[in-house]
Amino acid sequence: MANNSSLAVSCRQVTKTYGSGSAQVQALRGIDLEVYSGELMMLVGPSGCGKTTLISVIAGILNHDNGDCVVFDHDFNKMREKHRTRFRGQNIGFVFQAYNLFPTLTAAENACVPLVINGMSKRQAIKKAVGFLERVGLSDKLNRLPADLSGGQQQRVAIARAMVHNPRLIVCDEPTSALDHQTGHKIMELLREVAVGPTRALIVVTHDARIFEFADRIAKMDDGHIEKVVNSAKEL
């Protein structure tokens, strides 16, 4: 992990509330979190504690209500929407828990979407996406639609899509949930290789204790708070 002077993500007293009145749910209750360049940070905690909301705020998918969330010196809440969308498209890869693949696009076409959005020709984009799909073990599924893929295969397409445009920050929501132990470890090794470097960072939300060993640090969440940040699962 890089030294503490190289912050990739800085959250200060970040709050997020859904709904209003009696239906109001306070998902984030003053989150303080720092993620350094070169680091793989894992977020763990019970379902409903705010993990997915937090990474959605960090990735610029959700607006937070109060506090500061700065990613590579950019505060999403202070950006115009056009700038925000462009910054996110160039710098952030997101692996959604529900995969969010386009049902009418092949695996290769789904994986190349970030490249096309960033202006690369479709032909070049597919060629680069094929390389990443091969790295996640899907060289024989390039032209398959999502409906023809298993859950684990769809998950690997989503992971290839998150990595293909060489983002500085990759955020993953349960990236190994549909994978067997061996495949999960291979994916985590690939994510570390691609996403963790002196100018990059990786944040992984997981319930999968089998992959805790890949973390540089682990942040434990509960009820919208970061309870503690530790260096290994033994300290949880």
Description:
By secondary structure, the protein is of the alpha/beta class. The protein is about 30% helix and about 25% strand. It is built from 7 helices and 10 strands. The chain has helices at about 50-60, 80-90, 105-110, 115, 120-135, 150-165, 180-195; strands at about 5-20, 25-35, 40-45, 65-70, 75, 90-95, 170-175, 200-205, 215-220, 225-230. The strands form 2 sheets. A 6-stranded mixed β-sheet has the order 6-7-8-3-9-10, sandwiched between helices. Strands 2-1-4-5 form a 4-stranded antiparallel β-sheet, covered by helices on one side. Helix 5 crosses helix 6 (about 150-165).
Based on DSSP secondary structure assignment, what is the total number of beta strands? 10
CATH topology grouping: Rossmann fold
The percent range for helix content is 25-40%
What oligomeric assembly is this protein in?
single chain
CATH level-four homologous superfamily name: P-loop containing nucleotide triphosphate hydrolases
How are the strands ordered across the major sheet? 6-7-8-3-9-10
